Amino acid sequence: MHATLPFLPYIVGGLAVTILASLVTFACAVAIGLAATLWMTTGHPAAGPIVRAYVAIFRSLPELLCIFLVYYGCEIALQKAAVSFGFRPIPISPFLAVTVAIGVQFGAYSVQIFSDAHRSINPGLFEAAHALGLSPRKVTTRVAIPLILQAAIPGLSNLFSVMLKVSALASVIGLEEVTRRAKIVAGSTREPFAAYAVAVVCFLVIAAAAALLQARLERSFRSTREA
After folding, report:
1. Angle between the 145-166 and 94-119 helix axes, to the nearest 10 degrees?
2. What phi and psi, each to the nearest 5 degrees, are found at residue 216?
3. Span of the secretion signal (predicted)?
4. What confidence tens digit (pLDDT) does each residue in 86-108 have?
């Protein structure tokens, strides 16, 4: 443990990358899920089959495989494009690869959460909004989206917790988040238990903060409803 103590700031410093990667991927997943859900509510004939196929495909793939496909696949595509146009190949950022791969994959889970949230809303609320003369766009932005987000808070909180843990997989492609830095320190100090114990504490702190935020949001929406 004594050899690991001097590296505590280095490991904990990876929290910034872990939190940023988790928040960006979560935002991507929420945006994809909400957009897909709203598209299905429009009644477009292609919406249902396309969204169901997307959900079925990405819910069946391992997260690590998606990261590899995006990271190496995009790198090959960029190299070929650069050669075709006579430019120097640009390496893809591990951060970008992780956010795209996990964001797109967990967007499939987000679709399920938002779809369930939409079904739980009383259809009379949308009918009342239309009866008041609101345009379809205003019904979506001022009624549908706020109600769906409110109903989806518990599910989205659980989704963020899972995405936070999955973000550790980014270490396999070189992203220096908490787990990657703990591995580097463990190899240097020969104290793997101490290094990974610090990483465990870091993840527990983030998870606790997310749980407190969820509880606060639920209380805020509950008080708004009662008012």
Report:
1. 140
2. -65, -40
3. none
4. 777 777 888 888 999 999 999 99
